Amino acid sequence: QVQLVESGGGLVQAGGSLRLSCTQSKRTFSSYAMGWFRQAPGKEREFIAGISWCGASTYYADSVKGRFTISRDNAKNAVYLQMNSLKPEDTAVYYCATGAQVVTRTLDYDQWGQGTQVTVSS
Question: Does residue 104 contact residue 59 with C-beta atoms inside 8 Å?
Answer without folding.
Answer: yes
